[in-house]
């Protein structure tokens, strides 16, 4: 047998088995459901990192489809679906089992399979590897809370620490792979027309609006407007694009996240930025998708995670490649945030991640902590150009202090 065993197919599971129960444990788990509330799995409750029973991510050997620049997103999707359906027909697996199709980063698909069907596909010469699909969660420390209003504009300490805000005048976009964005927040320049929703049914599938608050918070740190209200972002006024891969509970699936990365790779331009303040146990498929998308010139800012462990155990934080930056967190004294994951590599920079004030759902504002909050500081810097540094973080537990990112 090949590609379908504990050392191979389930290698990501074995790698993270000791930490799976606690990974992203800062997230509330009592309401975390599968992507589609209407699915038969909706009666089961999941935590971030959990395997979704019967769901798999199948990665094919590359054909070069994603290198065909003349083909748009829909054309690549259509071509990849035809290839996929042809493969499935060999094993009498119904096309109705298909979920997401990937073609602009990794080539492959997500699907519902029996164990025998997964084994059969894993042995096909066209298949590179198969992983179990899992739940993905936000990289925020503590439970989401309510957001208050604002009577006048303030500059959060983190914005000041990374070099202050700049009124953004460029044309590049910040893709927020998260829980959506408050579409009519007065302090954000949201480009919903360029967005993507990984949810196909249920409440989360109806809109790119943010039902959690997390994605809106991330967007504000990157690009809140320089006006008379609320807060200001690093690249003030830049376009923020909702790529909704997490629901109102702050959870989604690995396959949905890869679908979001796939869309960004297909529709983004060189110099655009993608922020991924989310994570779960190690996944080769997630990492491969990030690295492939970043090779097209899109800059990815990735949260290191909040479990006080080595970032090499988590994805997408463990991804490494050109235009890929993994971010740890510090407090206002330049001291290590006790919750932050560590390890250099893959961690590239440290940024403000404790008691960070930013925009929130419902037109509000909120102060929260996490590597989720550190990462968009660097995403904002990347929109403005290159990252500079100013000192190193104190008390880095790996003994190799991360440089502090500034613009």
Automatic annotation (TrEMBL):
Domain Inhibitor I9 intervals: 55-136
Domain Peptidase S8/S53 stretches: 176-383
Signal sequence, renumbered to the chain: 1-16
InterPro entries referenced in this protein's UniProt entry, alphabetically: Peptidase_S8/S53_dom (IPR000209), Peptidase_S8/S53_dom_sf (IPR036852), Peptidase_S8_Asp-AS (IPR023827), Peptidase_S8_His-AS (IPR022398), Peptidase_S8_Ser-AS (IPR023828), Peptidase_S8_subtilisin-like (IPR050131), Peptidase_S8_subtilisin-rel (IPR015500), S8pro/Inhibitor_I9 (IPR010259)
UniProt KW keywords: Hydrolase, Protease, Serine protease, Signal
Superkingdom to which the source organism belongs: Bacteria
Active site (UniProt): 178 (charge relay system), 214 (charge relay system), 372 (charge relay system)
SUPFAM superfamilies named in the record: Protease propeptides/inhibitors, Subtilisin-like
Family assignment from sequence similarity: Belongs to the peptidase S8 family.
Official protein name in the record: Peptidase inhibitor I9
Organism annotation: Algoriphagus taiwanensis
């Amino acid at each position: 047998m090949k590609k379908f065993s504990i050392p191979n197919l389930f290698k990501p599971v074995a790698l993270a088995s000791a930490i799976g129960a606690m990974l992203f444990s800062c997230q509330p788990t009592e309401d975390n459901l599968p992507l589609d509330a209407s699915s038969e799995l909706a009666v089961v409750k999941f935590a971030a990192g959990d395997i979704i029973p019967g769901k798999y991510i199948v990665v094919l050997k590359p054909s070069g489809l994603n290198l065909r620049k003349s083909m748009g997103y829909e054309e690549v999707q259509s071509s990849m679906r035809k290839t996929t359906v042809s493969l499935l027909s060999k094993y009498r697996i119904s096309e109705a089992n298909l979920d997401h199709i990937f073609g602009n980063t990794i080539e492959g698909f997500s699907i519902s399979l029996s164990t025998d069907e997964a084994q059969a596909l894993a042995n096909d010469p066209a298949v590179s590897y198969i992983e179990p699909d899992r739940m993905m969660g936000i990289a925020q420390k503590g439970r989401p809370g309510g957001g208050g209003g604002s009577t006048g504009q303030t500059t959060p300490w983190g914005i000041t620490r990374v070099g202050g805000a700049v009124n953004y005048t460029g044309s590049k976009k910040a893709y927020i792979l998260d829980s959506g964005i408050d579409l009519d927040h007065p302090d954000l320049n949201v480009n919903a027309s360029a967005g993507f929703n990984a949810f196909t049914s249920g409440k989360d599938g109806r809109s790119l609006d943010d039902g959690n608050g997390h994605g809106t918070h991330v967007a504000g740190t990157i690009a809140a407007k320089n006006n008379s209200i609320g807060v200001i972002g690093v690249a003030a006024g830049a376009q923020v694009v909702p790529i909704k891969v997490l629901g109102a509970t702050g959870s989604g699936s690995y396959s949905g996240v890869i679908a979001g990365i796939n869309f960004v790779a297909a529709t983004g331009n060189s110099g655009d930025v993608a922020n991924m303040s989310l994570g779960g146990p190690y996944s080769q498929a997630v990492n491969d998708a990030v690295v492939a998308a970043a090779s097209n010139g899109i800059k990815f800012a990735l949260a290191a995670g909040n479990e006080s462990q080595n970032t090499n155990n988590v994805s997408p934080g463990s991804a490494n490649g050109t235009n890929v930056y993994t971010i740890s967190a510090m407090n206002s004294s330049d001291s290590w945030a006790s919750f932050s994951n560590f390890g250099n590599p893959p961690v590239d920079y440290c940024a403000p991640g404790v008691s960070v004030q930013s925009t929130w759902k419902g037109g509000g504002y909120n102060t929260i902590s996490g590597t989720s909050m550190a990462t968009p500081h660097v995403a904002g810097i990347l929109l403005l150009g290159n990252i500079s540094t100013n000192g190193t973080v104190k008390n880095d537990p790996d003994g190799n202090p991360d440089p502090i990112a500034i613009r």
